[in-house]
């Protein structure tokens, strides 16, 4: 069967953590976060408006927060981003750029809006977005989009691999489109997961699961075969 995966956000619900308890103050481990609005964008592909380079040229945490609700598009597939992690250009031992510029991390030190893809533990491809001004090595890991939770599942589902290292995300087949604004009350800000260093930093941004709704629409041009979908479609 042919599909286009779409993910929508519903409003008006209370913020809650994984335990189901309401998160009501900024001193909590799970806190609400603010962010600035992105400027309008101009270029357009077959789905919609593509984010331009100015969107990515801002501070790492701002871009990580504002990527929530945007659309990740690869060819005929698109999925709305629901979870990201920020990796800071300075003082972040978990960031690949922390040890300095290498052949592997060179793209992170370049202009913003390009893809930094690497193979994790020889198994999963991880898609990161280069952010901040050229020479300031910030990047944002896209951890979940649409029905795919987990950066490895996401790249497998959307066909992203090492050939996309250095891809310009403002043009071509792999891009990020303007989506919708996600309200602060719908966002959780938590420590990053799956890392050992600097794991206490509150640099993971995700849409509260209570606000997610996954729908599927038929399409003549898209075929999803043998893909893992998490969370469960409903």
Quick overview:
The protein has 234 residues and is mainly beta. It contains 3 helices and 11 strands, in the order βααββββββαββββ.
How would you describe this protein?
The protein is mainly beta and 234 residues long. It has one domain: 3-methyladenine DNA Glycosylase, Chain A (Roll), CATH 3.10.300.10. The chain contains three helices and eleven strands; from the N terminus they run E-H-H-E-E-E-E-E-E-H-E-E-E-E. The strands form two sheets. Strands 2, 3, 4, 5, 6, 7, 8, 9 and 10 form a nine-stranded antiparallel β-sheet that branches. It has a two-stranded antiparallel sheet with strand order 1-11. A hairpin with a 2-residue loop joins strand 2 and strand 3.
Task: Tell me the distance between the termini.
Answer: 17 Å
Structural category: mainly beta
Q: State mean pLDDT (0 to 100 scale).
A: 76
Approximately how much helix is present in the residues? under 10%
Question: In CATH terms, what is the architecture?
Answer: Roll
What's the alpha carbon Rg, rounded to whole Å? 17 Å
**CATH structural class:** Alpha Beta
Strand content: 25-35%
Quaternary organisation of the protein chains? single chain
């Amino acid at each position: 069967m042919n599909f286009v995966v779409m993910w929508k956000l519903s409003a008006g619900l209370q913020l809650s953590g994984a335990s189901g308890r309401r998160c009501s103050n900024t001193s909590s481990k799970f806190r609400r976060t603010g962010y600035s609005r992105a400027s309008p964008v101009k270029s357009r592909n077959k789905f919609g408006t593509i984010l331009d380079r100015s969107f990515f040229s801002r501070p790492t945490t701002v871009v990580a927060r504002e990527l929530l609700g945007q659309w990740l598009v690869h060819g005929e597939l698109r999925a709305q981003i629901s979870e990201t992690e920020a990796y800071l250009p300075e003082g972040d031992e978990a960031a690949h750029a922390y040890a300095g510029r290498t052949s592997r991390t060179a793209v992170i030190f370049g202009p913003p809006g390009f893809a930094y893809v690497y193979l994790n533990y020889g198994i999963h491809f991880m898609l990161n977005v280069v952010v901040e001004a050229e020479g300031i090595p910030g990047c944002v890991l896209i951890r979940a989009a649409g029905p795919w939770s987990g950066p490895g599942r996401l790249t497998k589902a959307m066909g992203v691999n090492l050939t996309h290292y250095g891809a310009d995300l403002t043009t071509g087949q792999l891009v990020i489109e303007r989506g919708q604004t996600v309200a602060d009350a719908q966002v959780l800000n938590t420590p990053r997961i799956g890392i050992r260093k600097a794991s206490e930093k509150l640099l993971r941004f995700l849409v509260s699961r209570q606000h997610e709704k996954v729908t599927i629409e038929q399409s003549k041009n898209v075929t999803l075969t043998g893909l893992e979908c998490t969370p469960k479609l409903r």
